[in-house]
């Protein structure tokens, strides 16, 4: 035991005394490799279990398989791992912005197991979000192990995320961009290099272990100028589909929460529904990478009408899986729905204008994917770079940018918050660095409070009080009850000026007669946002903080401005 | 120089809680000494100028000096001295005669001081009534090393254009190297002069030691 301890201490000190950036690069690549391994493990196990279950698909009772998977997954999360259901990305974003990326170690495997059960049994969900959750938890715990601070921990969380995405899609730049665009929300020089290295490490891990199973083989497409106009129309279609998808997902979650069923009961209902849909339309089952592959390579053989129905079947199945207690993400469903949309669009285009000389079906499947990713996640760069890396060239960049920007702008117009952020915004937990909400959440009441005020008794004669004013420079005097020290009110110098300048009043009044008892008070439990609202509504420049009837101190607006500015500088310019 | 968390919280005028949070978030240039966090002044200065943060690394000695410079009125009277039987018959000649007697000022500056006092009297008489005047210049006197209050008793009461038009026979020359000191002495002095017993005592032309003693007693009751 002592050998391990010594070894740990040496390694720790060696690492800690390295240059900050070097340390982050080394730790980041470790995080990237680990999260890459997690992604590969999930993919391999999904692959094998789907293959094994394929043999049972033709039985009539097969529709309950997804139900069993969802049931086991929800029971596992609820009883054993004790974590909430859902895809986990909002939790990671919130943890990054609020707790410096602190995540439980348990999160690094719990979502993997839960989503393996859900998706492996045929539930319609994506393995990316669980892998992101586990990658970021690995990064976070690595930082904890090394004793790093919040800023460094956030970078490592980003590294884990990037490694996971890069490994699953064999697309390092997409991993980097996703991590920065969606998870961290800020482009900082110090973050980019470690995250880029982690992304490459993650991609290398998957290439080394499963080279033949890389989801998207590099494939070049011939895209010409005549594709611009069709891609404009496709962008509008994908934006609409994105909005429908987001709305159905959220609506389903609300309906499920309203039902009085226990979590496992909901999971059974959701799983059975997906199973029944899957009986008629196997394309909705699982994460659907195989179907995406065949659509890109143009070997997908279904009639236009069936594919059109499949788009909505997939949307519904995903909403049933995720909303009713299954576990998984929306990345893969987005890709599948996007490629289905692209293929439908291509087929319709050729049906209407057989003479049009535009690119192949596969290219449109890719454009559709970009449209869905940009629309649902409102992460246009992730969409663009993922497809650029999949095609391995920049030939398609122009239509990609067109689709991505139009789709994200349109869906942003209809649905201002992306699927990942909406939950956070509703809970008031969307705190990007350098924003007002973030500063107010970081500054707490204890940091703002001015203490050391001279207190006065309510039975004090005014003349005595005048002597106290002469001696001190404070503008507020809390008034307390004799004996019990209970807070009674506050005297503001500006409010009593006319009495203070009239010596005739000095022996005539007691402080209890001139103190302000109606002034609102805050407590230490209030957060700064509430206190500021209170001050704004009542037009106050200062507010007393009272806890258990004891006066603690005062919060002054001038002081808030001072600290707010410091905090803003700290958050935006200090690395 | 090394600073502790508490020192830095004073320099940045934030609470120590904030400094601890910034440390946790990794925003400050810090090193560890045992279990405690420490900051190098030079590193902090570099960091602050890079990020446009105002860092007030205060000079502790300067603060203490400022506190020391407040001296009680009785000491100022000891510095200034008490002078009796000055002969004069109008404002200017009173000022001239008194200045000549006051020993704490070098002769080189007396001309300048006289001009300043006359100028102040022209603006508004310093005769505060009841036969007492407090002549003083408006600006601080940089050539003085310590504040002084000189008490001068005239042989005969003279018309000083005082606020209550009574002739003046007692003058407090209030001379101070800083304005802060000046205001402090003026405030204590006017407090003393409001005391009816004290003014009667003054009219008896007490000897310097008794005067200083009386002032000491009075300023204890009003410790500004």
Could you explain the architecture of this structure?
The complex is a heterodimer of chains A (575) and B (224). Helices cover 65% and strands 5% of the residues of chain A. Chain A has helices at 2-16, 20-54, 64-81, 89-98, 107-120, 128-146, 150-169, 172-184, 189-209, 228-258, 263-280, 289-296, 304-323, 331-352, 361-376, 380-391, 397-414, 419-426, 436-442, 445-448, 462-471, 497-500, 511-514, 528-538, 557-572, and strands at 456-457, 476-480, 487-492, 521-522, 542-547, 550-556. The radius of gyration of chain A is 30 Å and the shape is elongated. The two termini of chain A are 38 Å apart. In chain B, 25% of the residues are buried. The two termini of chain B are 36 Å apart. Chain B is elongated, with a radius of gyration of 25 Å. A 5-stranded mixed β-sheet of chain B has the order 4-7-8-6-5. Chain B has a 3-stranded antiparallel β-sheet with strand order 1-3-2. In chain B, helix 6 runs antiparallel to helix 7. Chain B has 224 residues and is an alpha/beta fold. Chain A binds chain B through residues 100, 148-152, 442-444, 446-449, 470-471, 562-563, 566, 569-570, 573-574, and chain B through 12-15, 17-18, 21-27, 51-53, 224.
What are the SSEs and their pairings?
The complex is a heterodimer of chains A (575) and B (224).
Chain A: H1 2-16, H2 20-54, H3 64-81, H4 89-98, H5 107-120, H6 128-146, H7 150-169, H8 172-184, H9 189-209, H10 228-258, H11 263-280, H12 289-296, H13 304-323, H14 331-352, H15 361-376, H16 380-391, H17 397-414, H18 419-426, H19 436-442, H20 445-448, E1 456-457, H21 462-471, E2 476-480, E3 487-492, H22 497-500, H23 511-514, E4 521-522, H24 528-538, E5 542-547, E6 550-556, H25 557-572
Parallel strand pairs in A: 1-2, 4-5
Antiparallel strand pairs in A: 2-3, 5-6
Chain B: E1 2-3, H1 5-11, H2 16-25, E2 31-33, E3 36-40, H3 41-50, H4 60-68, H5 73-80, E4 82-86, H6 91-101, H7 107-123, E5 127-129, E6 132-133, E7 148-158, E8 168-175, H8 179-193, H9 196-203, H10 208-221
Parallel strand pairs in B: 4-7, 6-8
Antiparallel strand pairs in B: 1-3, 2-3, 5-6, 7-8
Helix pairs in contact in B: 1-2, 5-10, 6-7
């Amino acid at each position: 035991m002592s050998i391990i301890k010594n070894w740990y201490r040496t390694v720790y000190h060696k690492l800690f005394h390295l240059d900050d950036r070097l340390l982050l690069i080394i730790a980041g690549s470790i995080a990237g490799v680990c999260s890459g391994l997690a992604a590969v493990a999930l993919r391999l196990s999904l692959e094998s279990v789907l293959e094994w279950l394929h043999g049972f698909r033709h039985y009539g009772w097969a529709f309950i398989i997804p139900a069993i998977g969802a049931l086991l997954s929800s029971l596992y999360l609820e009883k054993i791992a004790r974590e909430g259901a859902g895809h986990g990305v909002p939790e990671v974003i919130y943890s990054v912005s609020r707790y410096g990326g602190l995540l439980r170690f348990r999160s690094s495997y719990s979502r993997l197991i839960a989503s393996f059960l859900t998706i492996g049994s045929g539930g319609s969900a994506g393995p990316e979000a669980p892998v992101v959750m586990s990658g970021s938890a690995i990064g976070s715990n690595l930082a904890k192990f090394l004793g790093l601070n919040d800023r460094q921990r956030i970078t490592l969380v980003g590294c884990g995320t990037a490694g996971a995405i890069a490994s699953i899609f064999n697309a390092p730049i997409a991993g980097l961009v996703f991590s920065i665009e969606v998870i961290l929300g800020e482009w900082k020089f110090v973050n980019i290099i470690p995250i880029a290295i982690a992304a490459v490490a993650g991609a290398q891990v998957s290439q080394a272990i499963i080279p033949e199973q890389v989801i998207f083989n590099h494939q070049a497409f011939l895209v010409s100028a005549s594709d611009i106009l069709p891609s404009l129309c496709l962008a509008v279609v994908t934006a609409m589909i994105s909005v429908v998808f987001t709305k159905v997902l959220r609506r389903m979650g609300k309906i499920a929460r309203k039902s009085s069923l226990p979590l496992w009961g909901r999971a059974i209902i959701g799983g059975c529904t997906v199973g029944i849909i899957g009986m008629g339309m196997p394309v909705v089952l699982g994460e659907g990478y195989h179907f995406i592959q065949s659509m890109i390579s143009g070997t997908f053989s279904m009639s236009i009408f069936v594919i059109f129905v499949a788009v909505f079947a997939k949307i519904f199945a995903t909403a049933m899986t995720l909303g009713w207690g299954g576990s998984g993400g929306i990345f893969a469903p987005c890709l599948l729905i996007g490629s289905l949309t692209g293929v439908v669009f291509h087929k319709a285009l050729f049906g209407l204008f057989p003479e049009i000389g535009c690119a192949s079906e596969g290219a449109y499947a890719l454009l559709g994917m970009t449209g869905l990713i940009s629309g649902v996640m409102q992460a246009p760069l992730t969409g663009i770079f993922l497809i650029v890396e999949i095609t391995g060239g920049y030939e398609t960049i122009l239509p990609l940018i067109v689709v991505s920007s139009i789709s994200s702008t349109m869906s942003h117009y209809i649905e201002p918050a992306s699927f990942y952020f909406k939950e956070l915004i509703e809970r008031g937990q969307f705190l990007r660095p350098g924003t007002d909400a973030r500063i107010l959440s970081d500054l707490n009441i204890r940091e703002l409070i001015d203490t050391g005020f001279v207190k006065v008794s309510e039975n004090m004669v005014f003349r005595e009080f005048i002597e106290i004013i002469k001696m001190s420079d404070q503008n507020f005097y809390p008034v307390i009850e004799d004996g019990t020290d209970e807070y009674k009110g506050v005297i503001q110098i500006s409010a009593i000026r006319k009495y203070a300048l009239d010596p005739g009043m000095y022996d005539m009044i007691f402080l209890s007669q001139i103190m302000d008892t109606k002034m609102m008070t805050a407590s230490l439990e209030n957060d700064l946002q509430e206190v500021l609202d209170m001050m704004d509504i009542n037009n106050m420049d200062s507010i007393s903080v009272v806890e258990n009837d004891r006066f603690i101190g005062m919060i002054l607006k001038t002081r808030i401005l001072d600290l707010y500015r410091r905090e803003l500088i700290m958050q935006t310019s200090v690395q | 120089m090394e600073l502790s968390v508490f020192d830095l919280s004073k320099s940045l005028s934030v609470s120590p809680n904030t400094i601890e949070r910034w440390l946790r978030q990794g925003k400050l240039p810090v090193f560890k000494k045992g279990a405690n966090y420490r900051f190098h002044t030079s590193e902090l200065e570099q960091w602050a100028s890079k990020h446009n943060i105002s860092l007030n690394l205060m000079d502790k000695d300067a603060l203490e000096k400022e506190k020391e410079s407040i001296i009680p009125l009785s000491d100022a009277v000891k510095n200034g001295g008490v002078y009796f039987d000055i002969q004069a018959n109008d404002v200017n000649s009173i000022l001239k005669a008194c200045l000549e007697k006051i020993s704490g000022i070098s002769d080189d500056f007396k001309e300048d001081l006289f001009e300043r006092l006359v100028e102040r009297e022209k603006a508004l008489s310093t005769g505060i009534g009841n036969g007492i005047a407090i002549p003083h210049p408006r600006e601080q006197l940089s050539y003085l090393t310590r504040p002084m209050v000189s008490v001068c008793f005239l042989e005969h009461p003279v018309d000083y254009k005082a606020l209550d038009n009574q002739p003046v026979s007692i003058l407090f020359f209030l001379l101070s190297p800083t304005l802060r000191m000046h205001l402090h002495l003026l405030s204590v002095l006017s407090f003393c002069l409001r005391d009816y017993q004290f003014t009667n005592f003054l009219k008896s032309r007490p000897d310097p030691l008794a005067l200083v003693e009386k002032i000491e007693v009075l300023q204890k009751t009003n410790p500004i």
